[in-house]
C-alpha cells in the first residue's frame, strides 16, 4: 500500500502570526515537503493544479520534474490534472517527458478542478465539464497507446496521422487515477478503462463517497478488469498531530477556524466527527485511518493533506516526520495483515506494468 502527501499549494496567511509567504517561498516549501516525504519513508508526493490566486501550482510537470532530479524513490503524481481545460495532446507529451526524466516514477490524477472560472480562461464552457472529461481522456488514452492517431471529436481540431512525442517510457503509459468528489460519470469512466479511482473525501461525510466507490467497484467488475474488491482505490485525508491530543487541538484550531476552504463554518469538533480530518495524537490518526477500510474496503493509496491553511513549513515538516516514524509503519503492517491475498497491495507502478506488458 502506498502512503504519501498531497498539496493544493495555497498561499494563506498564518492566522497566528499574520505572516504570508511569497509565491517563491511557497513553491520552494512544496519542494521541501516532497524531499521530506522521501526522507521520511513515504511513497508518494502529489501536487494539485490551479490557475488562480491564492494557489501557485499552475505547472505540475515543471515542479515534479525538478523534484524528480532531487529524489530517487518517490512516486511523483498530481492531485489534479485538469483534463477538461488542458489539451490532451499536451498532457500526453508533458507526462511522457516527465516519465523519462523520472525513470518511470510518475502517475497522474485526472480531475475537473473546483474553480468554475478556469473554463473560460482556457476557452471552454463549464457546462461541458463532464463531456470534456470523457472525450479528452479518450483521446489521451489513445495517444499513449497508438503510435499514429487519427481523431475527430467535438471539442478540439481533428488530428491526422499524429504521433505524440516522446512516446511513453518503455511503451508503458503512466498509471491514471480519476478523482471525483461528486460525479458518478467519473467513477464509471475510471471503471471502464480499468484505471484507479481516487476519492478525495476530505470535506464530505463518508456515506457520500461510499456510494461513488461502490459504483466504481461494481462497474470495474462489470467491465472485466477483476472482482469488485480488486478495483484500485485511493483516498485522501487530513491530519494534524502532536504527542498530546489536547496540544494538537489547541495548536491547530486557529488554522482550522480561518482556513479559506472550511473556516467560519462547522466547528473543528463537528468537522472531525463528520469527515476524515484527524486532529490529535499519532494513535488517533492510526485508528481513524484504519477505519477507512471498514467504510470503503481494502484500498491501495492513502494521501494526506498537511500543508494548508497557512501552517508554517517547520510545522509541516515536523508533521511529516511524525507520519513517517509513528503512523505509517503501523498502518502498513495493519493494512497488510487485513488484506486478502487476491486483493492488490498497492496500485500499479511503472515496473509492475512493464512486467505485465512483457507477459
From TrEMBL:
Enzyme class, spelled out: oxidoreductase
Protein species of origin: Actinomadura monticuli
Keyword presence, Glycoprotein: no
Presence of keyword Oxidoreductase: yes
InterPro entries the record matches: Bact_Lucif_Oxidored, LLM_FMN-dep_put, Luciferase-like_dom, Luciferase-like_sf
Keyword entries, A-Z: Monooxygenase, Oxidoreductase
Lineage top rank: taxon: Bacteria
Classification via Pfam families: Bac_luciferase (PF00296)
Name of this chain's protein: LLM class flavin-dependent oxidoreductase
PANTHER family cross-referenced by the UniProt entry: BLR5498 PROTEIN, LUCIFERASE-LIKE MONOOXYGENASE
Entry EC no(s): 1.-.-.-
Molecular function as annotated in GO: oxidoreductase activity
Domain Luciferase-like: residue ranges: 1-294
